[in-house]
Give the backbone structure.
Amino acid sequence: MVLITGGTGFIGAVLLKQLVEMGLDVRLLLKPSSISPRLPKGIPFDVAISSLADYRGIRAACNAVETVIHLAGSERYGLRHYTPEREVEGTQNLAEAAAEAGIQRFIFLSHLGANSTSAYTVSRTKAMEEDVIRKSNVPFTIIRSAIIFGPEDHFTTQIATQLALMPLIYLIPGDGETLLQPIWVYDLATAITWTLDDPATLGQTYEVGGPEFLTYRQVVEMVMAEIKVRRILVSFRPPYLRAGAWLMERIFPTPPLTSLWLDYLAVNRSADLGSLPRAFGLQPARMESNLGYLENRAWVREFISRQFGKQARGKV
């Protein structure tokens, strides 16, 4: 049995399908909520209801489980909904409950740049989460991933929304030359599944990304080409964009721009180009040839719908 946190997110949905296709039993850990989660259809899985703050609930969810895959995180919603202490506490509870339950492997999805001395909130928080996992005595594998793209992501779809909402121009943070290494969500999910049968990955921390380095400006140009819009890309000072992001986080339940997103773009986020083939024997897909999911979507209408939908009301 595999227990997944964050299993209703865009990474979790892909991973769940792959694990079930491998013939594994899967249990999703869902937090208690008055809002019905968007559960995958046509795929058999178990459900356990517990907050990551509830140690007893997590411990019960770990019964008969061999592997825990920890994907859950709230950084995509911005500072309004992101509490570093809560993130670390939840990961510590999960790791300690997994260790007590005799879990054989604990897989944690972290970020490139995770560092306890980082100037950026999420990078520091991920490093603290990694630390509590290492101290928990649970057999672990940590994967520090580059930014992930795919259907329903919070990367390319966010850029597409921003482009749709901004007439004529698009504001690029700084010079737009920050290096990224986008990884296709299906490649990341495959790498995670392949760790399950490889004892050599226990106790290891991997840094992985896609097959190419791209500047943020290049990524925006790719998204523009895919959704068939043209905007003039204008360099803009990050402090002014941060002020706009701060305001959006307080106006919109799901803001199109967040302070944490600007943090991510403040420094290069890349790993060795050969990391994924070397560690997992997997040749990652290029970004430009896998953006078809962005076509023929009403981005402005979708944005408005998110602000007034059930999920948005549940966050307010």
